[in-house]
């Protein structure tokens, strides 16, 4: 873990290069983030789906895919998600290191050229806009993905809980956009939104492999055609307190098993000094099989098919998820709230604290074995403005005391109870 990222810039791109000989491939990630907004969330969500269809040099999708095959089966993909108050598009490309194959041109150079063209030189029609057939096809793709969330009731309940909890905040917006807004988008309007996105996004390019910052800078200069300007930074999210009175939202759909979710404000974010203690708190509460929610709600009381907690450190919220019989709603809420109060009182075993810290530090050590995991971990520092290395974060976790966990527990407050249940009337 002694390898360190080298930092630099090229135009609007922040560059982060991890020189390493540990892997047989180069791992490339380009993060493009903009503030979440009502007007932008749907066109930005659709954009990467259209960009993957073709580029200026490889305008037909089949030629686009054949180019990846020519690059020794390079893997290309993208993800869409929210971090803090931002909508992030992450493009990923991995390609074999030159020294393992017989080539004359730099495969890293070929990979950066391809990635740069995907993002900044897409396939256009004769009028200089996106190709309509690509836009219409990908509108259908995104619509189906949104439907898939609705059909996955566990994920649907999780997203609806956050939506209700963060109502009137940008974070309530879905990373995939809104289905009812897709129909209004066309090749012209999406291309205009794309140009605005290129102009305004914060771009961070990561490269991990047997290379140097100087080599990457030289290759990037030939590959990316971004609008001129300086790199822009991410803004810290507003950390809001919980409602003065807990709100309860009950939604009815045609389902068998009830989904009980809770949203809590934690008062701490990734950039806070108390973040390590909050991560341990989450581990003790519901992140692991020995956690309070799993043991007390699922095992002892037999009230839940699943029970866990999830921390969003960039937004400063914590969510609880459980699947229960509808008739067990009141009992489940009562026992879950008892676990929250127990944490405030510092009622957790020292053995569980030790086990939690060991599991978190093991996770941190394991991510060092994956280039893309290391990249994602480092990007959290860019988002938060607080740099953490794997080693320093492990040291923070190991230094967490029972008193520190109890202290962060005081600021964890229940904000929203969301219950997804069947359409039957209560007996």
UniProtKB/TrEMBL annotation:
Stretches assigned to the Peptidase M16 C-terminal domain: 185-358
One example of a Gene Ontology biological process annotation: proteolysis
Keyword Methyltransferase applies: no
UniProt keyword list: Coiled coil, Hydrolase, Metalloprotease, Protease
Keyword Nuclease: no
Organism superkingdom: Bacteria
Any one GO molecular-function label of the UniProt entry: metal ion binding
Annotated coiled-coil segments of the chain: 326-370
Protein name per Swiss-Prot or TrEMBL: Putative inactive metalloprotease YmfF
Organism: Cohnella abietis
Gene coding for it: ymfF
């Amino acid at each position: 873990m002694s390898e360190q990222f080298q930092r630099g810039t090229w135009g609007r791109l922040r560059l982060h290069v991890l020189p390493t000989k540990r892997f047989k491939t180069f791992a490339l990630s380009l993060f493009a983030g903009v503030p979440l907004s009502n007007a932008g969330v749907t066109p930005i969500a659709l954009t990467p789906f259209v960009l993957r269809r073709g580029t200026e040099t490889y305008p037909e999708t089949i030629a686009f895919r054949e180019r990846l095959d020519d690059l020794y089966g390079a893997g290309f993909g993208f993800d869409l998600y929210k971090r803090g108050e931002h909508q992030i598009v992450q493009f990923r490309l991995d390609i074999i290191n030159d020294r393992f194959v017989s080539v004359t041109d730099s495969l890293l150079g070929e990979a950066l050229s391809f990635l740069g063209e995907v993002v900044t030189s897409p396939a256009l029609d004769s009028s200089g806009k996106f190709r309509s057939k690509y836009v219409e096809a990908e509108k259908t793709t995104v619509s189906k993905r949104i439907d898939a969330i609705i059909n996955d009731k566990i994920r649907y309940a999780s997203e609806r809980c956050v939506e209700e909890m963060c109502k009137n905040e940008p974070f309530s917006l879905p990373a995939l956009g809104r289905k009812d807004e897709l129909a209004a988008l066309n090749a012209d309007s999406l291309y205009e939104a794309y140009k605005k996105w290129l102009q305004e996004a914060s771009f961070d390019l990561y490269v991990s492999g047997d290379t140097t910052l100087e080599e990457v800078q030289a290759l990037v200069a030939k590959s990316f055609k971004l609008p001129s300007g300086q790199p822009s930074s991410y803004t810290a999210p507003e950390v809001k307190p919980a409602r003065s009175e807990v709100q309860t939202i009950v939604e009815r759909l045609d389902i068998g098993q009830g989904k009980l979710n809770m949203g809590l404000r934690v008062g701490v974010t990734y950039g806070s000094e108390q973040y390590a203690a909050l991560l341990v708190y989450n581990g003790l509460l519901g992140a692991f099989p020995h956690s309070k929610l799993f043991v007390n709600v699922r095992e002892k009381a037999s009230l839940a098919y699943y029970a866990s907690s999830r921390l969003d450190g960039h937004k400063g919220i914590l969510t609880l998820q459980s699947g229960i019989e509808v008739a067990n709603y009141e009992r489940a809420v009562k026992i879950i709230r008892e676990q929250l109060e127990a944490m405030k009182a510092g009622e957790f075993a020292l053995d569980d604290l030790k086990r939690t810290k060991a599991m978190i530090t093991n996770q941190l050590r394991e991510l060092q074995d994956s280039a893309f995991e290391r990249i994602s971990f480092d990007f959290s520092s860019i988002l938060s403005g607080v740099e953490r290395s794997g080693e320093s974060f492990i040291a923070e976790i190991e230094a967490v005391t029972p008193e520190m966990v109890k202290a962060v527990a005081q600021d964890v407050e229940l904000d929203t109870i969301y219950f997804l249940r069947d359409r039957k009337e209560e007996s």
